[in-house]
Amino acid sequence: MIKLTFLGTSDSVPSAERNHTSILLTYEGENILIDCGEGTQRQFRKLGLNPCKITKILLTHRHADHSLGLPGLLKTMALTGYNKTLEIYGPNGTKIFMENLFRTFGKIEEYKMNIHEVSGRFFENKNFFLEAERMTHGVPCNAYLFVKKGQIRIDKSKLKKYKLPEGIHLRDLKLGKNIRYKGRIFKAKDFTFVENGKKISFVLDTSENKNIVPLVKNSDVLVCEASFSSDMEKKAREFHHLTSKQAGEIAKKSKSKKLLLTHLSQRFEKKKEIILKEARKIFKNSHLVKDLEVVEV
Ligand SMILES: [Zn+2]
Ligand SMILES: [Zn+2]
């Protein structure tokens, strides 16, 4: 099971209810932190989570509401016995950004850290892969995908239909390879399907752009910023953000299954239903997440 913990759900100005942006994705020993706004480590404490379990940090961009929690969190990890190699991923400019952080707040000597500037597929193991795509936000900014790989299964009804008996010769089909049986070629894509795959997309801080829909296509869960309501579309574009209507349109066009709205502007704290309503009008399965909410996928 994949678990998303929303540690912070505000935009650049936090409110009493909402901390700056940060999301923790947990899956089979992996604890991937997406962004680390100011105060993120206290959100860990509130839920009784241990920051020393973090395996990877994905930074969408360097704006303070997504990164200012890093110096404190990394230091706490040093003080509480972090003993792994921490992998930090971000867009172009992340290496110099991290160097500047360490120059200002002091270097972390207690554990090893690798900083990567990434685009495209940048991590893969047998269970899942991670992908980054450039967004439009005035500064280098990435959207991210977490894709849990599904298992390839044989479609038994097709075997019957094409008179292909079961047996050891199907082994390569299960690996996604085409096979030859009694002189005939059977293509893996015609006889197999993928089961239990999951795709989770994170689109934080961007204006509308042509990269988003193809990237997030068929997401099981699309986490998307909705900083503005649709009557503020001009302002959203000017500040390189999305409206809740645009978030709903992205979910619909990409045929995603569920939309989780976050990065809420404090101006909507008392009228959140505007944001939710606008997205729901276009895409029914929309939800506005709140701090410390946990979503299982
Ligand atoms: Zn932001
Ligand atoms: Zn930003």
Q: What would you note in describing this structure?
A:
The chain has 297 residues and is of the alpha/beta class. The chain folds into 2 domains: 3-150 and 196-292, 4-Layer Sandwich (Metallo-beta-lactamase, Chain A), CATH 3.60.15.10; 152-191, no CATH class. The chain has 11 helices and 18 strands. A hairpin with a 2-residue loop joins strand 11 and strand 12 (184-186). It is globular, with a radius of gyration of 21 Å. The mean pLDDT is 95. It binds zinc ion (ZN) (2 copies). The site of one zinc ion has 8 residues, from helix 2.
Q: Helices and strands in order, then pairings?
A:
Elements: E1 3-8, E2 22-27, E3 30-34, H1 40-46, E4 56-58, H2 64-67, H3 70-79, E5 86-90, H4 94-105, E6 113-117, E7 120-124, E8 128-134, E9 142-148, E10 151-154, H5 156-161, H6 171-174, E11 179-181, E12 184-186, H7 188-191, E13 192-195, E14 198-203, H8 212-216, E15 221-225, H9 233-238, H10 244-253, E16 259-262, H11 272-282, E17 286-288, E18 293-296
Parallel strand pairs: 3-4, 4-5, 5-6, 14-15, 15-16, 16-17
Antiparallel strand pairs: 1-2, 1-18, 2-3, 7-8, 8-9, 9-14, 10-13, 11-12
The protein binds zinc ion (2 copies).
